[in-house]
Amino acid sequence: MDISLSLDRMLFSCPETDSSDYMSFPGVDDDAFNCMDSMISDRSGIYVFPYLCTNMCEETYITVYVWDYLNYPEPYKRFVICEGQQMTAEEERDYLAYAGIVRTCETNWNSRFVSQVKDAFPDWHVSDYGANQIGIMMEHIYYASHRSGPKETLYKAGLGYIAYHLDDIASYNLIGTSPTEIIGHDLSLKMLRFINEHRLVGCLSSTEAVTKFKNAYRLCLSHVGKKKITKAQWRYLEEICAPDGNGLREGFNEKIFNFLEDCCPNEALAYKTFYKIRSRISENCKLRIPQPEDVFDMLYKLDCVLDYDDDAETLDERLREQKEKLKLEYSFGQFVVIVPECVEDFVDEAMAQHNCLLTFVEECAYGYRTVIFIRRKECVDRSYVTVDISNGHVGQVFARFNNYPEVEVYEFLELYSQIFGLDYDPCKLTGYDEFKDAEHRRSVREYTKKFNRKRRAVRQRIKRQTMVMEGQISMFEKYPELFGEHKAPEDIFELLADFEELPAGFY
Questions:
Q1: Is-contact 387 417, C-beta < 8 A?
Q2: How far is Cα 395 from Cα 188, in angstroms, rounded to an integer?
Q3: Residue numbers of the chain with a pLDDT score lower than 50
Q4: How far apart are CA 307 and CA 6, in angstroms?
Q5: d(CA 217, CA 215)
Q6: Is-contact 436 403, C-beta < 8 A?
Q7: Which residues contact 399 (CB under 8 A, 6 or more apart)?
Q8: Helix ranges (DSSP H) in 201-342
Q9: Which residues contact 503 (CB under 8 A, 6 or more apart)?
Q10: How far apart are CA 67 and CA 305, in angstroms?
Q11: Best CA proximity match to 159, nearest among 175, 176, 138, 183
């Protein structure tokens, strides 16, 4: 038997209950057995069915049936919990072993039983355990039913998770009479209630973990209130309080803390990495803290920046040379065109736009590609639209999050392309997605149709001009007596009916 169980039984001795005593503690009827059997869907699993019962002496007790078909020949074991009494040593060992491995109970059954126990034994202070917390509930009702030492005190104080994981705590006071005496480490009852969560109870696993908990607790105390802290939020607090100091200089950031309310712990670690990488980038590069859904994309972009960090001076020099060579900056109406001249400009734009712009840095530096930023005149420092130009062709035009910009941007680009001799086709720049709404889609579609009509008219005019320049004339001009203006083109075959032969393939 476990040493701690032996010590508990020795220090806190109680009368024993014999679960096989059906005279004092009658079992459930046949209908109940049939009901339990019908609810077992997988005979390789373990099922728990607790009942609140009353004997002929009107003594209330609990009968717990644990169905385990691996126990041959009986498929179930019965355990009786009676107030003021403990199980036999063998039964207690088996019962607590099941409490440590069983994970679920039928939901309606569990909620009904918990409600009954709270009414019958209010001094036990049973919590509203869910069906997936059946193991903790099994321990709670047993230890709270009799004088059993630290676990009785903790369970009755509403510290079920700490009691359930008491053996995982580095050290505790076996004869303490209050939760604070039992756990120690100068932890107040308020701190213990705060840490009484499945995801946080590990903070009591060692002296170092307790110290980290205290530091993190002080940081978030004024920001949590009565809300339960999430595992991601706690992981964030632990990381910024880590002894290695990573992120410590950033201090507590309430914005990140609130971001992580509905996130997983991995995103908390991602913010730690964000801080570390950001600290390695130029102080002039002011990177905003990303939203949780953007943090991993941000890390990818920052990683790209670090790849360029060693060659930053060379890349910056080449980008400035390209800017001076191309002279693509322009201003008209409400828009301004800006050409990036350093890696930092690409970083700022990529972070603001949430796009893959950083993958183009080297290509732009060496002249294989050109990127321009379209900004509004009234806020020229704020990112608006990014345009990718390759081989004199406008290839991509995107606003934030790779969405299509407003139709005014396309109209401005049409003019800009004419001035700078760029190949521009808005029909190839817009598909069927990434529109803000139906009105946005409609306005862009109308613009592309209008653009196509203008382009066809220009092409036809250029074609006619080219034919005249080459000396080509039409049949109407060569044979006016045959194809006079009064003759419609559809009369051609009637007019040629007297010809004996027509050239092959004429029809």
A1: no
A2: 63
A3: 1, 245-249, 283-284, 486-490, 492-493, 495-507
A4: 61
A5: 5
A6: yes
A7: 353, 384, 385, 386, 405, 406, 409
A8: 207-224, 231-240, 254-259, 265-278, 295-309, 312-326
A9: none
A10: 59
A11: 183
Token match 């209908």: residue?
31
Q: Decide the pairing of beta strands 86-87 and 16-17.
A: parallel
Average pLDDT of the chain is 79
Give the pair of three-digit tokens for residue 77.
Answer: 């074991």
Q: Which residues pair with 396 in a beta bridge?
A: 388
Give CA–CA dist 12/176, Å, rounded. 13
Rg of the chain (C-alpha set): 39
Phi-psi region of 421 (alpha: psi -120 to 50; beta: other; left: phi over 0): left
What the block records as the tokens of 457 is 């008219």
d(CA 256, CA 233): 9
Query: Distance between the two ends of the chain, CA-based, in angstroms?
Result: 106
Written as six digits, the tokens of 360 are: 């183009």
How crowded is residue 449: how many other Cβ atoms within 10 Å of its Cβ? 11
Q: According to the model, what pLDDT value does residue 488 have?
A: 46
d(CA 463, CA 134): 84
Structure-block tokens of residue 23: 């005279």
Helix, strand, or coil (residue 52)? strand
Question: Are 19 and 78 spatial neighbours (Cβ–Cβ below 8 Å)?
Answer: yes
User: Which pLDDT score is estimated for 499?
Assistant: 44
Query: What burial class does residue 463 get, using C-beta atoms within 10 Å of its C-beta: 0-12 exposed, 13-18 middle, 19+ buried?
Result: exposed
What per-residue confidence (pLDDT) applies to 255?
67
pLDDT confidence of residue 349: 86
- The CA distance from 3 to 171, in Å, is 14
Cβ atoms < 10 Å from Cβ of 24: 14
> Residue 373's pLDDT is what?
95
61 strand-pairing partners: 53, 82
How far apart (Å, rounded) are the C-alpha atoms in residues 19 and 36?
19
What is the rounded distance in angstroms from the CA atom of residue 195 to the CA atom of residue 234?
Answer: 10
DSSP symbols for 442-471: HHHHHHHHHHHHHHHHHHHHHHHHHHHHTT
If phi > 0 it is left, if psi is from -120 to 50 it is alpha, else beta; for residue 111 that is alpha
Q: Is the link from the previous residue into 405 a cis peptide, with omega within 30 of 0?
A: no
DSSP E strands in 342-443: the ranges are: 370-376, 385-390, 393-398
Q: Are 139 and 146 in contact (CB under 8 A)?
A: no
Joined tokens for residue 134: 């059946």
- Spatial neighbors of 418 by CB under 8 A, at least 6 apart, are 424
Whether the pTM exceeds 0.85: the reply is no
Residue 252's alpha-carbon distances to 16, 228, 262, in angstroms, are 53, 18, 18
